[in-house]
Amino acid sequence: MLTLTFSEISQNAKGLAIFDKDGTLVKDNGFVHKVEDFKWNKTGLIILRISSLVNYSNFVVTNQSGIAKRMFTEKQCLDFCNFLQKEAKRKKCEIAEIYICPHLPNSCECRKPKTLTFSKIKKKFENIPSNLIMIGNSKDDRDFAKNISANYVDINSKLAIMKFIFFCLFK
């Protein structure tokens, strides 16, 4: 597992939001790894901005089997994720950390929907916030949310933003 840390974790966070990367925060044109191909998924960006405004700690957990398939390198993936974080900051959004699984499916414990990445996130908190939301676009993301007992927001739902706001306010 690769980890990028960008900011200190707030122990006073009102909640914890975990975002998938491809198809959720950024438009997915297949194994996105080149900075020049970066494009925000507007719904993902809006939810990331809301999450930052309401004092949630934001994390990205992403499966990147393209590294194991040798479609791109770890360095290209890390460069892209660093660029993503800088662009988020430019949009007044906070991303505390990005966790990257570089392995093929069924070959490790850090790949969603398995929960090793969440175990790492939990260790950052003295008391894990009770309001936990996973924002994603795949069955693995939905299963990951279920495995960590998080509320799930499907980024492709027309009600994704409203559902996220509901979970922030009422869960």
How many beta-strand segments? 6
Helix/strand/pairing category:
alpha/beta
The largest sheet has its strands arranged as 1-4-3-2-5-6
Query: Which term fits the overall shape?
Result: globular
Mean pLDDT: 94
Largest sheet: 6 strands, mixed
Uncertain segments: none
Walkthrough of the structure:
α1 packs parallel to α6. With 171 residues, the chain is an alpha/beta fold. α5 links the parallel β5 and β6. It contains 6 helices and 6 strands; from the N terminus they run ββαβααβαβαβα. Strands 1-4-3-2-5-6 form a 6-stranded mixed β-sheet, with helices on both faces.
Spell out the blueprint of helices and strands:
Layout: E1 2-5, E2 15-19, H1 42-53, E3 56-63, H2 65-68, H3 74-90, E4 97-101, H4 116-122, E5 132-136, H5 139-147, E6 151-154, H6 160-170
Parallel strand pairs: 2-3, 2-5, 3-4, 5-6
Antiparallel strand pairs: 1-4
